[in-house]
Amino acid sequence: MAASLSRPCFISLHLPYRQGWAQHLANTFRFQPVAVRETPRVRQLALRRGSAVFLVNERWVPASASTSSCDFLYDVDPQPALGTASNVCFEVDDVLGLCKQLQSQGCSLLVPPTELRDDGGAVTYGVVSSVVGNISHTLLDRSRYQGPFLPGFQPIQGAPSGTGDGIEITHFDHITYVCPRGSARAALDWYQRCFGFHRFLLNPQEKPAEGYVLGGQGVGMLLLALQSAQSTPAHGCKLVFAESLSQNGTNQVDTFLEQHGGAGIQHVGLCTTDIITTTRALQQQGVRFFTPPTTYYSQQDKVEEIRAAGQDPHMLAELGILLDTTVPGDKGQPGTDATESPSQEYLMQIFTHPIFSEETFFLELIDRRGALGFGEGNIRALWKAVQVYMDQQQ
């Protein structure tokens, strides 16, 4: 029987010596620091926006100075040579039982079930290794804990609340993994078998046996997606697996694998309830976003589609936001038929530039107006925008 995971508790990022991102995440993206933990070698800082929490791990000593298992709570040390998002923590009900179950299925247990407590109560956690690159998963039971974050961390008093700044981010929408060619299906199968994830169809055109394949016009990519068995399509965090199929030279998927040193988390989608206001506010803070091809907004069919959704094509073009309508009633489940809905279902998206110096990890804003999957037009436009940026960096 597969493990049963709930929503993500946090996503952990690791930075090399003398590289930091926590201040940028707080000052530019306006995530609120909520708790901190420090040792002589590392600092772990939790930052939150809505229910989306990043745990940023920064090193105070060079890589040659070894860290111990005591340095990183609720995580393991990926020994990064560059910035990397390497751990996704899921809340579970029975850490001990799930760890035993996963071990029996051949999963590597990096941290055995461990209990930690403070005045706020107790938590139990364990860490298992994923089959994808440097990714690990913390399994956490905090049902007996009432503190602000987790035992071992000190709450940060007086941090700004972030209310009224125009940035409306609610939760993690999806996490996209980049996999080497030929390995995405195996990763998908592993998460289904070991973690109990269910298949999610990204688009009505996707065939479950084949996945969602984008070809032509310089694009060659396979996309596969899953969602937690305990989550609903509207509110759960999906896992998306991307694999390059392009025969036209290096693309952004291949570049990620090369610069990251292997498979890993390429980007995290942050759900927003107001992408226009949020994008404008983040731009004013200094966040840089990819610019879609101008032809995206000049196509008459796209202009009419944007207007039919009740949005202003000129405003979306000014900000660089993409919009795709979807088949009404499409719920992303294999074997289900779309049913007519009285309202227009669509989504809007925008990508940031890479967060670190390498062309690896970045963030996405996604505003879902009834649409649960991902529009093909958006995927193609985002692919082209990223590709143009990469070509300019050469």
From TrEMBL:
Keywords: Iron, Metal-binding, Repeat. GO terms for molecular function: 4-hydroxyphenylpyruvate dioxygenase activity; metal ion binding. PROSITE patterns: VOC. Signal peptide: none annotated. Residues 7-142, 171-322 form the VOC domain. It comes from the Eukaryota. Gene3D superfamilies: 2,3-Dihydroxybiphenyl 1,2-Dioxygenase, domain 1. InterPro entries: 4OHPhenylPyrv_dOase, 4OHPhenylPyrv_dOase_C, Glyas_Bleomycin-R_OHBP_Dase, Glyas_Fos-R_dOase_dom, VOC_core. The keyword Iron applies. Its cofactor is Fe cation. It catalyses: 3-(4-hydroxyphenyl)pyruvate + O2 = homogentisate + CO2. GO terms for biological process: aromatic amino acid metabolic process. It holds the Pfam family Glyoxalase. Catalyzes the conversion of 4-hydroxyphenylpyruvic acid to homogentisic acid, one of the steps in tyrosine catabolism. Belongs to the 4HPPD family. This is 4-hydroxyphenylpyruvate dioxygenase. It comes from Xiphorhynchus elegans.
